[in-house]
Specification:
It is globular, with a radius of gyration of 13 Å. The protein has a single domain, classed as Alpha-Beta Plaits, CATH 3.30.70. Helix 1 packs across helix 2. 27% of the residues lie in helices and 24% in strands. With 88 residues, the chain is α+β, with helices and mostly antiparallel strands.
Length: 88
């Protein structure tokens, strides 16, 4: 799961634009957007967080990665230590 903050995503049109940008990179990606919190969660994707960020930027938004377990080491923890931050 890749979580991205897109603070300048403010309406339904923005949601459609961000979804379209993500799916242009990986049409099989599962995209869940919470407009109230400006959060985009992307699961079941073969794309990297960097590719998704780039696509969202090209669509005219300013995304910031919040969490990217898809890019984490095999242990599942971003720092590489098992259980260090509540992840396993």
């Amino acid at each position: 799961m890749i979580s991205i903050q897109v603070s300048d995503m403010t309406c339904g049109h923005c949601v459609r634009s961000v979804t379209k940008a993500v799916q242009a990179v990986d049409d099989g990606a599962q995209v869940r957007i919470d407009l109230a919190t400006h959060r985009v969660e992307i699961g079941q994707t073969e794309a990297t967080a960097a590719d998704l960020i780039s696509a969202i930027k090209e669509a005219g938004y300013t995304p910031i990665v919040i969490d990217s377990h898809a890019d984490a080491p095999a242990s599942g923890c971003a720092s590489g230590a098992s259980g260090c931050c509540g992840c396993s």
